[in-house]
Specification:
Structural class: mainly alpha
Radius of gyration: 20 Å
Strand content: under 5%
Order of helices and strands: HHHH
Number of helices: 4
Helix content: over 70%
Number of strands: 0
């Protein structure tokens, strides 16, 4: 049911933006950004349940919570960078959107280095000496 409401809001906002864009492009951009933020904030509440399940699975499997938190931060960076880039892209600034995506990728790489190191150590320990 949530997706029907979100799609309905998105379609209604699209129609309003198309009507407003001709006369007031700034208002059209603000409406697009507002609708995007509202949908994003609505979905944040849904993610909380997923995080709870993942934490439970990590506890039962013995995986350190540091790795799970790092993975969740990486996922969060990816979503936020994509969301920010899309809003900037809606404003017609493709080059700034590309820089936001680049910054998100660099931050993800920086955060993933410790996990990659642990994976390599684990594989090396599994190989016969």
């Amino acid at each position: 049911m949530d997706i029907l409401q979100i799609v309905g809001i998105g379609l209604l906002a699209t129609i309003l933006i198309l009507v407003i864009r001709e006369q007031k492009p700034m208002f059209a951009f603000l409406l697009a950004a507002f609708v995007g933020v509202a949908i994003f904030l609505t979905m944040i509440g849904k993610i909380e349940g997923v995080v709870s399940v993942l934490e439970d699975l990590a506890d039962r499997s013995g995986i350190s919570s540091v790795y799970l938190k790092t993975m969740l931060k990486i996922i969060g960076i990816a979503y936020i960078a994509e969301f920010g880039a899309q809003i900037v892209r809606d404003a017609g600034l493709e080059s700034v959107a590309s820089k936001i995506e680049f910054a998100g990728k660099v931050l993800i790489l920086v955060m993933a280095v410790p996990i990659i190191g642990v994976l390599i150590e684990t594989v090396l320990n599994l190989l016969p000496a």
